[in-house]
Amino acid sequence: IGSDDQKLKVLDSIVSAAMKAECEMIAEGVENRKQIEYLATHNIYLIQGYVYAKPEPIENIAEPNPEA
Fold first, then answer.
1. Where does the EAL domain lie (predicted)?
2. What is the pTM of this model?
C-alpha cells in the first residue's frame, strides 16, 4: 500500500472482490500507520508486519502451554 495510483486501484479491486465473496483477509508486510489506516477503512483488521514487530522464531515469542 503506497502512493502508486495504479497499484492502489488493483488493491482496491482485490479487496472489493474478497469482500463480495465474504473472504477473511490478512494483510502481510504492513510497515506504517498509513497502511494500517487504509486497511481499517476497508475493514481489514488481521495485520502482520514490521509495524508491530520484526519476525522472530516462535520459541522467542511464545511460552509453551503444558495444558494445551
1. 1-68
2. 0.69
